[in-house]
Structures are given as structure tokens and as C-alpha cells.
Amino acid sequence: QEKSSRLSAALFGEDCEVSHDQLYELLKYAALGKCHNATQPSWCHIYHQSHLAGVVVIVLHEMSQLHFYKFYLQFKHLRRVFRHRFSLTPSANFLASLYGERANLKPANTAQGLTSASSECIPRNSDLQCDPIIRKYGEKKRGLTSYTLTLEEQKKNYYPIKGSPGCKGYIYTECDQQRTDSSPLFGLDCEMCLTAKGNEVTRVSLVDAQGQCLLNELVKPESTVVNYRTRFSGITKKMLLPVKTRLTDIQTRLKNMLPRDAVLVGHSLNADLQALEMIHPSVIDTSLLFARNEGRRFKLKFLAKAVLGKEIQCEQKLGHDPAEDARAALELAQFFIEQGPAKVAELNLEMLLTTEKLAEVSQNKAALQPQGCRVQKQLNELPHLSKPCFLDCLQVTGQKPLLLGRQELDSSGLCQSNLSTSNKQILQRALEDVPLSTFSIIQFSLGPEYIASHILAGLCEKVRSKLTDMLTIYAGPFEENFCLKSVKKEFGRCGPIQYLTVLTETYQPYVCIQYEVLEAAQLAVESLNGAEVAGSCIKVQRPVTAAMLDCDVLIKELELDIENEGVIYVAGLKKSLTEMDLQEEFSQLKDLETLFLPKDLQSGKHRNCCFLKFQKSESAMDALEVINEWTLKGSRLRSRKALATGHLWRWIWQMKHSYGKQGVLYEKMEQLSDSEQDLRKKVKKLDQHIKKLYRSLQNNTLCVVLFPGVN
Q: What is the annotated signal peptide range for this record (predicted)?
């Protein structure tokens, strides 16, 4: 558990900023676990990383915290669903700092094709002893029965087992005859589509030991098809329309075709048997046969090329050919049995895979170089960092990350070209492909016309102006000779005052007060409007401008913000009170989790207000009623629901101090208004895209949305 002070700081703005290195740590560990020296992030903790279904990073290209607050009301889904928010520290190059700079490695010199490695790639005998294949099987040749999965291995790898509770209704092949080293091998592969039930078979292929295709049949799923996965399965709606064959027909045919001592061979065969709803006692799984460290697996396509010298699953073809995949898996098993573990280990598959990945990445980088993208240029100009490219790490583990976006993302050299012309196209592709990938980066963009410097300067000025108006209240009228000190004292009980001035342009005196926090201004409007202050019954209101017409709606939405759940604001504290004094005073409140006493970011002095976070929202509401009746050390307290989360509170302070003297040319404001109208619509659409994508994700998916900004 973290210390209370650390928690409070993170909640309320002192420590709500994360660096790109910290974000890199989080994503790397979430995707890789303990592979490639990935360790738990230094700033947070992921429990049960192995249970993560996937990692999805949504990048809102060239949008920043400015856009989030300017279009806060439009980001309806984003702010209601995502519970944790952090400010990102500035970065000279966002993509490079997020993924890690590519290591300056050159592929090893190899002969044509992956199967004929040069002498420097062949491992020494001492290295062979460390090879996971040798550690698992030894160096001597063995018969096929040595490579069939044991019952324990089948259970561990989620094979359907006879008598298992999860396999109720599954068909048993009844191949119970004792296996020998001369038992017949059969290659099996299925293609699946996604239905309302889950994965269902749409095509089944079975080949014999000579590679002859015995079965290659289309199957009509029982449930409604949600996604045909045509890019991978090759199956289309049109293909299945005339099909009458059902799963039960295939089960019967397979059961009749297989001899009593048959051994089934496949790549990750458990998925095929689960989809077929069949149980077979004797299997060789090539994804496990060609063993790797740390539970990783080689892909069938790579093994076919590296071991057999065959190209399968070619990108020119529409989807995979199950007969081709079944034959490849069968031939891989036959190669392993005939050549023995030592010969397979000498292929040095791990080195070949790394070489292939680096060559592939280099080709992509070279192919994309002529585009002249500024991101590519920035990547080349950066000094090489010690950490490896994040996407290279993923690819070496056998995971192919999905990257969808516009040119800037793809031409960084970190992925193959997946260019889409619109956010809608990117979304449609993401909905299809994200469920098939363990790590996805999806990039949406507003478009280049919305990132011009005068547009950003105008947005910045408008946000600064609106924040200033929200922090400002006007109070009056007062008598001619009213006591300014008593007015300042009364309004000071609502929270820390930035400045107070008397307005003399009016018939009777008014005061203009600008507070440091939103809660203080809102509390003044709620508690002092219509009250008697300095001998006058006064009206308290915010400035009336076009931008402030939706202020009440914005305040309500800030109250309901998921980050403000269970958090209340308390004002009227004496500055002599320490944090320890307040902890003691408020300790009687039920379910109090954290107390935070904010301080001026320049002077470091404590303010006359604090924030309290409760474990339950109901407890926070109960505390509000109690605190509003309290008098603490002779000072009456005032409280309300919190409005500004930690990063917003800090950002308001930065905006006021960084942009206080900046403005925008008035002749460009009219043009900005037109752009802003379009921007609102665009942002609202983006929020809907995020909503659709988020809802399509599997449970236990880590989803991160990034606003990288323009610099």
C-alpha cells in the first residue's frame, strides 16, 4: 500500500504528472510481462498481468489537454468512463519517447532464405545445452510417442479433456488404441468466425501423413455471425449461404475417418478441438513442440519458412488456407521426429526470428522513407536511446502489434503501412482487428487544418478567458463607505482569493473577486448570493459573457466527473492549522480515505481550504451536511462537492501564469469561431468513436487514451 500523503498528492495535483518513460514502463510491462526484462512500473502496479486480454492505446493525434478542457462537454463518454487521468510531461518527439528508440542493430549476414544461415548464426555445442528444445527433449532422436502431449500438458494448455466439466456435450473420437511410434499422423486445421456464441467453425481440413487432403469442408455456424474475420479465415457471407453442412455432420465424419490409433497434429490444436467440440486423446502441438523460453510460441508461418522453406499464409491470398496450414503443421512434426531435437536446435530459430523481424522493420522503414514525413525525420535526428524499440520487443515475442492510423503513425518506421483516409475507416478496421491482437495502437486525428498556430493560440486564449471568468465573481451593491476588510474576510471563507478590487464605474460600489480554485467561486455564488455582507444585502454573480452561458451545465458535469466521486471541498480553515490538526479533527468522519491541504505552487504556503476523499460517495454527502454546521477553532466551515481534479487544478494555475499576458489577433477571431464550430462536431464524433471501440473490447483489457499535443 502507498502512504496516505503519496495518495493524496496523486489525487489532487502534486503528483498527477507522468513522464513518457513512466508511460513506456506501464505499456511494456502490460504487454510483455517479465519478458525482455520488463518489470512492474515504478509509479503504479499491475496485478495479475498474465490475465490481461490485451492492451489498446488510442492516440488522439496532435490533441492536448487544452482540447480536453476546451471541449470537455463534448468528450462525454471519455470523461465518464476513464477513471484515471494524468498529465503527460512535454516530449520533443512523442512517438519515439513512447515506444523507445530503435536499437542501432544490423541484421546478420545470411544466405538466401531463412533456412540457410551463415556459420556465425550456427550455435556452438555449449549453446545447444541452453536451447529450450534440448532442455525439454534432450539431444537424441525419439519416436513420435515422445512428442505427444501428456494429460497434464493438455490440461495446462486448455485442451478439451474427457470428463472435464467444461466439455459437457463434446464428442469423443473413441480413438483409444495404444499408440506406437508407427501410429498414423493426421494434420488438422480449422478456420473460425466470431458468432453470438463465440468462436465457431466455418471450415475444416484434414490431411494424411502423405499430405493428401481427406477433408476440406465449409461449415455453417449455428449462431448468428458477428464477424466473418475474412482477412484471416477467407470466409465470406456469400460463401456460407448455400452451405448445409453443420458441426454435427463434421463431428460424425471425423469420428468415422480417424483410425483407432490416430495422432492428430496441429498448431495450437486446442483452439481447433474446442471449436469442433471434440475430444481426442493423442495430439502433437507444433506450437509447443518447437519450444521457446518463457512460454512464448513461434507462429506457424515463421516455422514453415524457417524449417521447411515454404511460404504459407501469403498476404496476396484472401485469408488462410486450412488445408495448407494442416499440411505445414504435419510436415513440421515429421521433420522434428525424423531429424531429432539437436538438428532442430542447430537451426537457431530464435536468431532467425530476430533477423527476420529486423529485416522486415528495415524494409518498412526504407519503403516509407520517400514520404518525407516529419515524424520519420525526427526519429532519425534523435540520439539513440538505451531502451529498445517497444514494438520490436513485441514482435520478437511472436506478437504482431496492430497499428492503425494516418501517415504520421505508420511512417515512423515502427510498423507496416496501414493507411486509412478517415477516422471512420480507422474505427471500422479497429473493430475488426483489435480483438485479434494483444497490443493495438489506434490513432485518430482532427486533421491538419485544425492545428494551425493561430487556431491553437485562439483556443488557448478562449480557454484561459473562460477559466478566468469561472474563477471570478462580482458582488454588490454596497454602501458608499462599506468596510472592505469585512467583505474580504467573508468572501475569503469560501477559499483562497487571487485578488479583490473595488469597482467605481457603477452607481453604487461593487467588488470583483478572482479566486484561485473553482470551488471557492462556486461556493461564493451559492452561499453569499442574497446574503447580508458589510451591512448590505448583496447579489453575487459571475461575469455574463457568451462563453459563460453554459457555465451552470459545465459546473454540473464537473461535479459528476468520475474523478470527483467521493471528493468534497472544505473552506474557511485557519492558516495556523497544520495537516496533522486537520487529520485529527476530520478523523471522526466515516469512511474518510485521504485529506489534502493544497499549497501555493510558487510560495509553497498552505491555503485556507482542503479536499477530503471518502471511500463511498454516500459518506461524502453525509460529511457535507455535518461540515457545513461545524466551527473549527472559532472559524465556521463551508463545503461543497469538488469540481477541479488534480491535473485540472494544476493546469488552471499554469494557464493563468503562462498565458496571462498572451492574446490572439482579433481579426482572426471570426475565422476561429467558424473553425471552433466544426471542431466541436469533430470532437463529439471522436468521442463516439472511442465509445464504440471501448465497448467492443474484451474484459480485462488495459485501455489508454493519449493526448500527445503538438510539441
A: none
Which domains are delineated in the chain?
142-339 (3.30.420.10), 567-641 (3.30.70.330)
* Number of Cβ within a 10 Å radius of residue 353: 22
Q: Which residues of 619-652 are buried (b: 16+ CB within 10 A; e: fewer)?
A: bbeebbeebeeeebeeeebbbbbbbbbbbbbbbb
Residue 400, CA distances (Å) to 38, 67, 296, 393, 394 in order: 18, 32, 13, 10, 7
Residue 3, burial from CB neighbour count under 10 angstroms (0-12, 13-18, 19+): exposed
| 8 Å CB contact between 635 and 572 | yes
pLDDT at residue 437, as a whole number: 87
Residue type, 639: S
pLDDT tens string 623-654? 999 998 888 777 789 999 999 876 777 777 66
Put simply, whether the predicted model's pTM sits higher than 0.85 gets the answer: no
Please spell the DSSP secondary structure of 32-89, one letter per residue: HTTGGG----SS---SSGGG--EEEEEEEET--HHHHHHTTTT-HHHHHH-----EEP
CB 626, CB 637: distance < 8 Å: no
pLDDT tens-digit profile of 310-331? Answer: 888 876 666 678 999 999 999 9
Cell of residue 34, nine digits: 517479465
Average pLDDT of the chain to the nearest whole number: 81
Helix, strand or coil for residue 247? Answer: helix
Question: 107-121, 206-220, 451-465, 521-535: lowest mean pLDDT where?
Answer: 107-121
Tell me: pLDDT of 500 over 70.
yes
Residue 454: name the closest of 670, 657, 661 by CA: 670
Contact partners, residue 613, CB within 8 Å, separation at least 6: 8, 11, 566, 567, 592, 593, 594, 595, 596, 620
- Structural contact between residues 113 and 45, judged by C-beta atoms closer than 8 angstroms: no
Q: Which helix (H) or strand (E) holds 197?
A: none
Assigned C-alpha cell, 279: 475430444
Say whether pLDDT at 9 is over 80: no
- pLDDT attached to residue 32: 83
Nearest partner of 655 among 450, 498, 538, 432, judged by Cα = 498
Task: State how far the Cα of 331 lies from the Cα of 210, in Å rounded to an integer.
Answer: 9
User: In which element (H, E) is residue 192 found?
Assistant: strand 185-195
